[in-house]
């Protein structure tokens, strides 16, 4: 579906910190606009992570189905690059249906990968890194910089000959993958240009003015999750036997703390306290991302004097941002 002021199809982003009310607002927007929802959440992709991820309930899904939920087993990691590919496919399909994609969630790395492209850099190779550092110890970083210049002159030109960390990583990437850092970054730029040239993206973020309000909501919601069976949910994952705490699914906020409780590393009170603290830290990181975000339209869920704003008011404000 194209916007009135552009020939480009419209794509909506609804972002915000955890517990800010994104899901409720997205469902309400679906009653006003011909939108289809795409989840942008690194925990919701996993089957069996329901209570602790605040996954939309069956009733909420009936009102507003979310795409990209429950698409992976917790034993199978899911990357930002995979999300980008899956989200673009869903966006195209929604447009073919004559509707507007509404991407809603709080995993900022996923939004960033979609907007800016994703350089699929190889994982750190400690053995290759050790070789590079040994070479630098013998001959000096300027000589290693020269080695980088021979294979990737464009990248080398942007790095000082004594900037050891950047030289090492760029050379490591080339030796491990066979592709230069410059080539990978160029591919990322092409991805970003492709998205922005194809779509008109309207980005909206919601949050309360008062971070204390958010902290209270996080604590209350975590307690509610415990009452709704969060520990039993994680116990089921724990007892499977094929999962461990280094997997992305188990590292998710809340899940890690309950896992440690089941592993007798925390008692119940400490688990709850640490879970709430970790969730608040997540919200802080999300807000930090958003404060530096370009072309972002803010909608505050409360007034500056602390009064909660009506959902209809928030929806009308969002509608005003649309072309």
In short:
With 323 residues, this protein is an alpha/beta fold. Helix content is 54%, strand content 10%. The protein has helices at 22-30, 58-63, 80-96, 108-116, 126-139, 141-151, 153-156, 164-177, 181-198, 211-227, 230-238, 248-251, 255-262, 268-291, 311-321, and strands at 10-15, 35-40, 66-67, 100-105, 200-207, 296-300.
Molecular structure report:
- The structure is a single chain.
- The chain has 323 residues and is an alpha/beta fold.
- It has 2 domains: 10-118 and 208-321, P-loop containing nucleotide triphosphate hydrolases (Rossmann fold), CATH 3.40.50.300; 126-188, Histone, subunit A, CATH 1.10.20.
- Helices cover 54% and strands 10% of the residues.
- It has helices spanning 22-30, 58-63, 80-96, 108-116, 126-139, 141-151, 153-156, 164-177, 181-198, 211-227, 230-238, 248-251, 255-262, 268-291, 311-321; strands at residues 10-15, 35-40, 66-67, 100-105, 200-207, 296-300.
- A 6-stranded parallel β-sheet has the order 3-2-4-1-5-6, with helices on both faces.
- Helix 2 links the parallel strand 2 (35-40) and strand 3.
- Helix 3 (80-96) packs across helix 4 (108-116), helix 11 crosses helix 13 and helix 13 (255-262) packs antiparallel against helix 14 (268-291).
- The longest helix is centred in the last third of the chain and has 24 residues, at 268-291.
- The two termini are 12 Å apart.
């Amino acid at each position: 579906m194209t916007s009135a002021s552009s020939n480009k199809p419209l794509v909506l982003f609804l972002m915000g910190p955890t517990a800010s009310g994104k899901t409720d607002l997205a469902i309400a927007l679906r009653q006003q606009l011909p939108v289809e929802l795409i989840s942008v959440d690194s925990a919701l992709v996993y089957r069996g992570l329901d209570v602790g991820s605040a996954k939309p309930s069956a009733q909420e899904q009936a009102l507003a189905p979310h795409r990209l939920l429950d698409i992976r087993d917790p034993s199978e990691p899911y990357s930002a690059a995979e999300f980008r590919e899956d989200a673009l496919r869903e966006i195209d399909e929604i447009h073919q249906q004559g509707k507007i994609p509404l991407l809603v969630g709080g995993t900022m790395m996923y939004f960033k990968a979609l907007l800016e492209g994703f350089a699929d850099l190889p994982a750190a190779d400690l053995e290759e890194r050790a070789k590079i550092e040994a070479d630098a110890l013998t001959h000096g970083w300027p000589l290693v910089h020269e080695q980088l210049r021979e294979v990737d002159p464009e990248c080398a030109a942007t790095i000082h000959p004594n900037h050891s960390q950047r030289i090492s990583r760029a050379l490591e990437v080339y030796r491990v993958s066979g592709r230069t850092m410059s080539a990978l970054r160029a591919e990322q730029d092409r991805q970003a240009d492709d998205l922005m040239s194809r779509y008109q993206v309207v980005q909206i973020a919601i949050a309360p003015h008062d971070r204390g309000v958010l902290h209270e909501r996080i604590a209350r919601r975590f307690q509610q999750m415990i009452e709704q069976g969060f520990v039993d949910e994680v116990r089921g994952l724990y007892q499977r036997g094929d999962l461990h705490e280094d997997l992305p699914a188990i590292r998710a906020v809340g899940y890690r703390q309950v896992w440690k409780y089941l592993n007798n590393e925390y008692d119940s009170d400490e688990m709850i306290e640490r879970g709430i603290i970790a969730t608040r830290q997540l919200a802080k990181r999300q807000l930090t991302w958003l404060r530096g975000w370009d072309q972002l339209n803010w909608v505050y869920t409360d007034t500056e004097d602390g009064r909660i704003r009506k959902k209809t008011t928030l929806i009308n404000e969002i509608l005003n941002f649309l072309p």
